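A reminder from the course coordinator: this example appears on the midterm review sheet, so study it carefully.

Given structure:
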């Protein structure tokens, strides 16, 4: 029983981490390393601190209330849970289309397979996880295995690129002046704990029966482990990219992370990139589908009863849209803008819920977590509104 509980806690942590580590995560990290060089270490450090603040607030309140985020939101303000669920599902579906495309590209890199055929195969693998009788256990194990594989391959590439580790360490705590770090921090926070990702691990623990005040130490540990896993991947990808930048080599604008892997380790590195991209994309497909459906299953007994079938349908829709339309840029752009608004809204709701006895009973939420959470809400809300306005202007002129 103890071993099973540990597996669930690790599974929830890696579900969150691998949901975050998708094609966008890989591209963002290499892009900002090229822009900020060694000082990007400072951005990663601040992002890790903010990510931990978000996850500890959200996961703890889900655990003590023993309710999913949408039900908590409805108890704070009637109808708010439905609104949040719609945003989560729309954002999850849109980004899943991108994840399916990323997986197809991974198969293309590895085997020269047509991207759309690869996307269909990736969707079949993701569906296979949920067809399995013990889908929850298989999802946990798959997320752990893929997460560890991605990290190991990226570590190898990082050492192959021979990055200036001393400079990176120094500028993590004393970055160069005159650079815009704020937008990079917000982008990374949104990409690591934004949208559905915020709730992936918390909902998984709830489904597995790990809840209540007595489970808080384990919930804390699982949340921090998830952030740590995603951050380790980010750090080594940063170092790999920094090594290439420091050598004066050009990172391709078309596919920045592939360029880094290839420069660092040649053709083998390029194949490693294919494995990392494929693993990142498929685990993100699984995480997005599972978490998105968890947001609507309490609204309908039919969805509750046929949860696996609904998850499979979610993946099939994502794959169908990609094979017909490719990556629908406008849909992804709008979904990204909406996703940015989800984090401050849902975190604010959770902080209000933490002080409602009808939701959390006699639980006392730590004051430092509340203050930390309020700061994150204000900063993310301000910048998300600016980003949303900018994207809407681009879309609709």
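Designed residues:
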């Amino acid at each position: 029983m103890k071993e099973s509980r540990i597996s669930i806690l690790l599974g929830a942590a890696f579900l969150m981490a691998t949901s975050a580590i998708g094609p966008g995560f890989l591209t963002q990290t290499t892009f900002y390393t090229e822009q900020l060089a060694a000082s990007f270490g400072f951005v990663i450090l601040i992002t890790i601190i903010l990510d931990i603040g978000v996850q500890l607030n959200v996961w703890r309140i889900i655990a003590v209330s023993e309710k999913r985020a949408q039900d908590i939101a409805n108890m704070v303000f009637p109808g708010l849970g439905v609104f949040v669920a719609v945003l989560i599902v729309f954002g999850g579906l849109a980004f899943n289309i991108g994840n399916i495309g990323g997986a197809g590209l991974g198969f293309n890199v590895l085997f020269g397979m047509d991207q759309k055929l690869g996307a269909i195969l990736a969707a079949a693998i993701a569906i296979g996880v949920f067809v399995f009788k013990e889908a929850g256990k298989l999802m946990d194990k798959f997320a752990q295995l893929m997460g560890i594989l991605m990290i190991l391959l990226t570590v190898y590439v990082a050492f192959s690129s021979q990055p200036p580790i001393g400079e990176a360490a120094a500028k993590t705590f004393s970055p160069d002046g005159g650079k815009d770090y704020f937008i990079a921090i917000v982008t990374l926070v949104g990409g690591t704990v934004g949208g559905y990702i915020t709730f992936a691990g918390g909902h998984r623990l709830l489904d597995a029966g790990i809840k209540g005040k007595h489970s808080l130490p384990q919930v804390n540990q699982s949340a921090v482990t998830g952030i740590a896993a995603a951050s380790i991947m980010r750090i080594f990808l940063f170092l790999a990219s920094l090594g290439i930048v420091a050598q004066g080599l050009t990172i391709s604008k078309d596919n920045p992370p592939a360029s880094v892997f290839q420069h660092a380790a040649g053709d083998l590195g390029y194949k490693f990139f294919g494995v990392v991209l494929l693993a990142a994309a498929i685990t993100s497909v699984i995480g997005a589908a599972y978490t998105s459906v968890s947001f609507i299953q309490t609204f309908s007994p039919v969805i509750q009863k046929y949860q696996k079938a609904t998850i499979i349908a979610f993946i099939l829709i994502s794959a169908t849209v990609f094979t017909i339309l490719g990556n629908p840029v406008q849909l992804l752009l709008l979904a990204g803008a909406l996703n940015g608004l989800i984090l401050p809204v849902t975190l604010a709701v959770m902080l209000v819920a933490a002080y409602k006895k009808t939701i959390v009973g006699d639980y006392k939420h730590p004051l430092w977590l509340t203050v930390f959470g309020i700061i994150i809400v204000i900063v993310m809300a301000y910048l998300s509104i600016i980003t949303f306005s900018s994207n809407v202007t681009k879309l609709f002129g």
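The chain has one domain: 2-396. The chain has 17 helices and no strands.
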